[in-house]
Amino acid sequence: MERTYVMIKPDAYQRGLMGELIARIERKTYKITSAEMRMLDEAILKEHYAHLVDKPFFPEIVEYLTSGPVLAMIVEGVDVVNGMRMMCGPTDSATADPGTIRGDFSTSKQSNLIHASDSLESAEEEIKRFFG
Length: 132
Description:
Elements (H helix, E strand, L loop, with lengths): L1 E7 L1 H5 L3 H10 L3 E8 L3 H7 L9 H8 L4 E8 L2 H9 L12 H5 L8 E3 L3 H12 L1
Antiparallel strand pairs: 1-3, 1-4, 2-3
């Protein structure tokens, strides 16, 4: 059984889509074993997006992810890391297939509703970062 980190982002909260996204996760038979609504700050975003801190668009990421609450979750299931990535779809909604979360609901590359860890190693790091 694997576990991964999933974050429902502020635009999903603001658009009233959190229940739909949680329902999709649960219908896939994944279990949400921990969940916490929280406001993020720049310090944790610098750690989480360390590979992007020097990019000119990083301030936009901070503005977006601090614009409202996020739902941080630990999700468990068989092949959950790959399964959640497939369920989310690519970051750029213009290339996301219908049936994926981003393909069905995302409005732009930045306002992309959800984050899911990209590997088992990242999942463990992100779970430690957001859940201690």
